[in-house]
# Entry
Amino acid sequence: MKVTIVGMWNSFPNGMEPTSGYLVEQDGVRILIDAGSGIAGHIQKYISIHDLDYIFLSHYHHDHAGDAEAFMLARKVARQLGRVDRNLKIYGPESGTLAKTVRRAKYSTFLPIRAQKIYTIGPFKLEFHRNEHAVETYAIRVTDNNGAVFVHTSDTCYRGSLVRFSFGADLLITDSKLYEGYDGKVEGHMNAEEAGRLASKADAQLTILSNLPHHGEMEVLLDSAKQHPAGNIRLAEAGMTIEI
# Structure
């Protein structure tokens, strides 16, 4: 399984680097997890936008789903020009106006995600964990046919059930919006110390701190996370590619 970090900033793009979006590939199958602001343009550094048939949206805040309609328009154009003959499949929470928008679209298909739902797409099995956040939000666990595991927490505060959901991940990309000392539960986010604690308790092999803030020193986030005994912990970078 190859995972490319297309974007990783919280709230809005940082210069030329987008908000959340993670491209997952294996055996010619491509899945995009989250489609935040700027992702539709930047994903074309790695693949043609017309070669992407599956998008999973953890929730509908703009920094995780702001470019969903751009992908839908790209598929509409491709269908009208005869470049592809497949609908774009968009998976996401049932609550929210974007779900209604996708359902009305002619060349896109909406499929709901729920905590008890499992989808199999090519070599991938996708499972979901209901997070604590301001809107209906899910962490996503992707397992390939070789047993490699990638978990994206999306936006969430720290929970014991999230440890269990993430356990044994080869790659854990975790919400790290807040610096240590901030109460993540109030905002529905994890601080960096909690992200490191999750990585340690989940026994993750590689943890990437993502959903990064636009203020402060990023190395301070990293140092906070590394307080806990864990595998390799790194800061997310746009264009970073991980093979697991």
Observations:
- The chain has eight helices and 14 strands.
- The chain has a mean pLDDT of 97.
- The helical segments are 39-42, 62-65, 68-80, 97-104, 160-166, 184-187, 192-201, 218-225.
